[in-house]
Amino acid sequence: MADILNQTIGRYEIKELIGEGAMASVYRAYDPEIDRSVAFKILKDDHCVDEEYLSRFMREAKAAGALSHSNIVTVFDVGKIEKSPYIMMELLEGKDLGETLNEKHKLSVTETLIIGIQLAKSLDYAHKMGIVHRDIKPDNIIVLPDGETIKVADFGIARISEAEEAQKTQVGSVLGTPRYMSPEQALGEEADGRSDLFSVGAIMYEMLTGKKAFDASNIGTLMTQITQKQPAPIQDFCPNIPAGLRQIILKLLNKKPNKRFQTGGELASALAKELSSLREQEAEQRKQKYVPLKIRWAIYMAAIVSVLMLITVSVIFNIQSKTMTQQAVDSGSSFAKFIATETAIPLLSEDWITLETFISEASSRDTFSYLIVTDRKGIVRGASDTRLVGKPYQPPEEEEIISDKDNIHTSSLMLENGSAVFNISAPILFQSTNVGQIILGLSQDSLDEVKSVTGWLMFLLALITVSSVAVVLFIFGGLLAKPLKILGQNISAFADGDYDSRVSLTRNDEIGELFDRFNMMASKIQLVLHPDSQHSNDDTRSSEDSMNEEITTNPIGLDESLSGDETVLASSLVKSPTETKNIDDNKQTPENKNAKTASKKPVKPTPESDNDATIIASSSAKIKTAVTKQAKQSKVITKKESESGEKSS
């Protein structure tokens, strides 16, 4: 087949070569009709003359084209160019598992389980479709960019193993990648789905240990290892492997197919169980790392304050150190000026004895490390170290300039004995004429000691501050955690079915408001779930008590416009049903009979009686209205009492 790069085959535009195997070449192609890049795999010319290879390649196309699974590479099209068959398949971004293992050496237990589950599910699907891959290896497992999702590719030696077309592999023929093949494949025996599961075991062994399960360098020894030898104990290379997962891999690598997992579904279930247990264990470990709020706050605030104090102390100490250094330099400069004034006349008059006497007396006070006086030619005329007298003065080679003002040069240098000094040089003037130079060395030991003490004091202050903040936050966190713990206990109790659980703690702050809202929420939820609960009955009784209190205050609900006598009269007229019945049942007394007889006698009207009749008529109208109103209220109350009694029953 001629070079197809940059050619158009059917509707596919061949863009670039992206891979090459023993049997086929893989190109990146573009399908303009659906605006998608695909992988174009075409058999090499060397194998197109071999009918076995052609048959094997077409078998891959037909087998893979029948599969549709999220963990299997999708085949879009199958065809031939001249005599060369090709497959158009899904183009995947990512790396194969072999490349991943070369980079990482080995994978974690969790990563191995996730990949193993997907691999088992994809093979279980293919086996149910009657297809055995027979060449499961890391190079045929594509790991997508997310690092977890995989897709199985290259059914290069897959074969359809339908029952009516079952054919046994010829004895002695070795198909598949030798290092990952099953013992039955190595022996040329019939291979089924359990052979693929053996390969999965070899791959998982390698993912966990970084070692090949069978690592012989020649084919003969490799076949012997696969068929007769057991891999090195997996725990030797992966000590933290769960016992369950170790047993799963041992079962997968069993030499006898009937001793392995019989289906990919069984394997996927076993691996999923191990993954679930592992995640539960990790969750439990995270739970054990629970840090109380008071400790967390104390640590966080201590860390923040420590950083702030470190910055603050560093800045303050640096400023203070510079200030103290400047004060020492100014003091040394004044001292140097004084000595320069005292030595001007002896130096000018060349009175060396007086000069030496002055230097000797000054040195005896131990106020400086060294003192050198030179004339205007730079010759040492007097010095605390008499060995320098008469020699040219040699300025220090290594010094750190501190200041240079008013003709006074100050630097810092290290003496041979390891002590640091301020080296101060000042001119010796006589009537504004330079007659020489004085070089004075002042020790920095006292200054360094003061700086050290200051630094330790500031560090101690920072430590006390940080500790105080941590302790205060620890105590405050404990105080805050206590009510939250109480609230949490009540929430847990409510969630467990104790709907009477309430927070009894009273606070006049935001936490108290939170308690109140929880109690309100609990009451409303309880009322919805249990309308006949004690709380709802209490609410009903509270409403009835309020009504009864109102009736007690105004027994018959009379209009306030009634006079006292009218109220008494109306009250005597309004009776409950029970009271009315009792009155009817009572026998009439002789007095009642006489009163009734007397009432039948005619009465002669008088002006006073007419006036009384008018008043009585008016009062009767008011009383009638009041009695009617009270009767209605009595019916309502009686009805509520009846309903309450039924609920209580």
UniProtKB/TrEMBL annotation:
GO terms for biological process: signal transduction. Residues 478-530 form the HAMP domain. It comes from the Bacteria. Keywords: ATP-binding, Kinase, Membrane, Nucleotide-binding, Serine/threonine-protein kinase, Transferase, Transmembrane, Transmembrane helix. GO terms for cellular component: membrane. Residues 529-549, 572-649 are annotated as: Disordered. The keyword Protein transport does not apply. One of its GO terms (molecular function) is protein serine/threonine kinase activity. The keyword Magnesium does not apply. Residues 532-544, 581-594, 638-649 have a biased composition (Basic and acidic residues). Its EC number is 2.7.11.1. Residues 12-272 form the Protein kinase domain. InterPro entries: HAMP_dom, Kinase-like_dom_sf, Prot_kinase_dom, Protein_kinase_ATP_BS, Sensor-like_sf, Ser/Thr_kinase_AS. ATP binds at K41. It holds the Pfam family Pkinase. It is an enzyme of class 2 (transferase). This is non-specific serine/threonine protein kinase. It comes from Neptunicella marina.
